Amino acid sequence: MSSSSPEYASFFAVMGASSAMVFSALGAAYGTAKSGTGIAAMSVMRPELIMKSIIPVVMAGIIAIYGLVVAVLIANNIADNITLYKSFLHLGAGLSVGLSGLAAGFAIGIVGDAGVRGTAQQPRLRSPKDYGVFLPVQWSRSFHRECS
């Protein structure tokens, strides 16, 4: 072992992979649970809208997949002679993906719960615009009008 790759260097890379998976899975679990409670409450009033209201649960589940992908990418780059610098880079990447996945899961859970309950009260308001499908298109149109 050299001074640039001590024995404990791989620990930080493994912690990066672990934090990417753990924090993003916690965010996905929270988003799924919070949206699921909204769907359960909504299904009492409007049982025909259950399958249409599953979008926030799917969106929350995707966050865990992002964390898994980054954890696998980090784990595949861990070698016996990994440098301390590269190990800290893996730790930073894992923490950033994991903590942003945690925050995104919280946001999807809160917004999904409110959106599902709102859909039950007023189904006419539910459209693809609610999930940001047309928002980038509208932004690009307004940007194009301003620039030309």
Automatic annotation (TrEMBL):
GO terms for cellular component: clathrin-coated vesicle membrane; proton-transporting V-type ATPase, V0 domain; synaptic vesicle membrane; vacuolar membrane. It is found in: Cytoplasmic vesicle, Clathrin-coated vesicle membrane; Cytoplasmic vesicle, Secretory vesicle, Synaptic vesicle membrane; Vacuole membrane. InterPro entries: ATPase_proteolipid_c-like_dom (IPR002379), ATPase_proteolipid_csu (IPR000245), ATPase_proteolipid_su_C_euk (IPR011555), F/V-ATP_Csub_sf (IPR035921). Coiled coil: none annotated. The chain crosses the membrane at residues 12-33, 54-75, 95-116. Pfam families: ATP-synt_C. Gene3D superfamilies: lithium bound rotor ring of v- atpase (1.20.120.610). Keywords: Hydrogen ion transport, Ion transport, Membrane, Transmembrane, Transmembrane helix, Transport, Vacuole. Belongs to the V-ATPase proteolipid subunit family. NCBIfam families: V_ATP_synt_C. This is V-type proton ATPase proteolipid subunit. The lineage of its organism: Eukaryota, Metazoa, Chordata, Craniata, Vertebrata.
